[in-house]
Amino acid sequence: MLAPEGVGNSGLVYKSRRESGLMEKAKRVVCIEDEPAMIDLIRLILSRKGYTVAGATGGREGLELVQSTQPDIVLLDLMMPDMDGWEVYQKLKAHESTREIPVIVVTAKAQSIDKVLGLHIAKVDDYITKPFGPQDLIESIEKVLNRRTAPSA
């Protein structure tokens, strides 16, 4: 933390990342998950790494949130009561404004192989299996985002 005048204990003057021009825009994540506690956990994990997380507790709400916020990435649970994740995924990829947003699917260990294979065929950007560790989540998101921003050869 900076001292009030921006002078550290060593006497050096520090600038915040924003002042020095190094501050990059926080990556925006939409988490579509029917369990609010899981959204809160994901928000806690990702906010510590500088991500901004918006949560939606159902498929319909999630679609609206993605369309209105145009996030950098979507975390999508497959098993939700109002609209399952597979249907949400298809609608995201069918809509011109959301088609290019990468999606990481969050699957339960008991997820049927048919859905996982279907998502593989549909070219989902990545999968995370619940329960997952914080580092697994961060690595998956960074891998997908880096793949999207890497220059083509």
Keywords:
single chain; 153 residues; alpha/beta; 5-stranded parallel sheet; 17% strand
Shape: globular
Regions with pLDDT < 50 over 5+ consecutive residues?
1-22
Kindly state the percentage of residues in helix: 40-55%
H/E element sequence: HEHEHEHEHEH
Radius of gyration: 18 Å
Strand order across the biggest sheet?
A: 2-1-3-4-5
Q: SS-based structural class?
A: alpha/beta
Tally of contiguous helical segments: 6
Biggest sheet layout: 5 strands, parallel
Task: Classify the beta-strand content into a percent band.
Answer: 15-25%
- Average pLDDT confidence is 81
Give an overview of the whole structure.
The protein has 153 residues and is of the alpha/beta class. It has helices spanning 17-20, 36-47, 59-69, 85-94, 113-121, 134-149, and strands at residues 28-32, 52-56, 73-77, 103-108, 126-130. Strand 1 (28-32), helix 2 and strand 2 (52-56) form a beta-alpha-beta unit. The longest helix is centred in the C-terminal third of the chain and has 16 residues, at 134-149. The chain is globular, with a radius of gyration of 18 Å. Mean pLDDT is 81; it is low at 1-22.
Write the layout of secondary structure elements.
Layout: H1 17-20, E1 28-32, H2 36-47, E2 52-56, H3 59-69, E3 73-77, H4 85-94, E4 103-108, H5 113-121, E5 126-130, H6 134-149
Parallel strand pairs: 1-2, 1-3, 3-4, 4-5
Helix pairs in contact: 3-4
